[in-house]
Every structure is written in C-alpha cells, then in structure tokens.
Amino acid sequence: MDYLGVVLIVAAVAAAFVVIARNQAWKGRRARAENDSQLALAKRTAEAAVAGLIEALTRLAPVAEQDPVAQAEYQHADAARVRAVRCLHEATEPDELCLVTENLEEGRWTVARLAARAAGEPMPSRRPPCFFNPGHGPSARNIHWHGRNVPACTADGARIDAGADPYIRTVERGSRRVPYWEGGPAYAGWARGYYAPWQGSTLVADIVRQA
User: Fold this and answer.
1) Which residues are CB-neighbours of 186 under 8 A, at least 6 positions away?
2) pLDDT tens digits, one per residue of 41-59
3) Backbone angles phi, psi at 179, to 5 degrees
4) How far apart are CA 161 and CA 40, in angstroms?
5) 119 lies in which domain range?
6) Inter-residue contact 189 to 97 (CB < 8 Å)
7) What is the pLDDT of residues 115-139, one digit of tens each?
8) Which of 125, 132, 172, 195 has the least C-beta neighbours within 10 A?
9) Total domain count for the chain?
10) Which pTM value belongs to this model?
11) Distance (Å) of CA 150 to CA 42, 92, 94, 201
12) What pLDDT was estimated at residue 174?
C-alpha cells in the first residue's frame, strides 16, 4: 500500500472517531438535559410534600408544648422533616427522591399520632399512605376502586363511598396534569419512597402490581 493510501485510511479512521465522539457527546448532553428536566419536575412535587409536613407540624406545635410524650413525637417528626429536606437538596437523580418520601412517610405517620393525641382519640394503627395522595398521610382503610384494592385516607374513603371522586394528586407531564402514577419515570422514585416500608404487604399489593 502506498503512502497516500495509508494517509487516506488514517484520515478515514480519524473522521469516524470524531463522528462517534460527537454523537456520544450529543447523546450525553441530551441525557443530562432530560435528567435535569425530570429532576426539576419531581423536586417541585417533593417540595410541595415537604411544605405540607411543615404546615402540619406548625399546626400541632401547641400540642407538643403541653405534653412531654407529644413533645418527643413532635421531635421525631421534625427530625424526619430535616432528613427529607437534606435528601431533597442532595438529590441529583429523580430516583433519589425516594429517600425524601421515605422520610415524609415517617413524618406523616408521627403527625397522625400527634393529631389523634390532640383530639383525644385512640392512637391510629400504622398503615401505608393514602394511595390517591400520599401527602394525605396514613390511610384509614383499604377500599376497592377501579378494580384495585388500595389504601385510602378517611376523607377519600368517604368521598368514594358517597359516589364522588377522590382527591387525586396530579403532576405535570408534558402539557398536561395527570395522576402521579401516570407521571412516568420522573415521579417513580418520589412515589416509591412512600410505600418502600410496605413492600410485601398485601395492603399495597395492587399498587405495586398495577401502578
């Protein structure tokens, strides 16, 4: 092979490497942009859930001031809030928001106990969050809804019993708002964290199987 032939081959190989490198770089930028977009959407949803827990804690602060047992529960819930906020700030992938909602689930459960104590009611049993909106806090019972057996809070259970629609948590997907379980990969971690402590429980089997 003459010198010119070798040069042409080397040039062709080099050009091919440049094309491949540019293609990989473009794919990498596109993947990062998609990740950033999904993370921003999921973080907004998680921020709203954290704000809901903060509001509940603020409302129940007077109860904690009057009862040492309630004070300990309040501190437990507030510690869960602090962990949730830290995980929210540290998240770099949408899936990492499961750590946020795992802590929110813990905080909401403790808030439910504080609310029962404030009302002079019996302590509630530990149950998974309301399927329709995990931000509603622990469910009161399981109900049949559209062929599923799902946990529901007292308010949503009563609405369904009356023939009305439950208050479903919707999220952004494209130009529409959809139920969070139709939100796609952006919200998968956010939703999973709420029910992570309940994996294997029959109370959430239909959520895992059909969501």
Assistant:
1) 37, 38, 39, 41, 42, 94, 171, 173
2) 889 999 999 999 999 999 9
3) -55, 145
4) 36
5) 3-210
6) yes
7) 998 888 999 889 999 999 999 999 9
8) 125
9) 1
10) 0.80
11) 23, 31, 25, 12
12) 82
Report d(CA 178, CA 172) in Å as an integer. 7
Distance between CA 137 and CA 101 in Å, rounded? 11
Tell me the residue length of the chain.
211
Nearest Cα to Cα of residue 191 among 204, 174, 203: 204
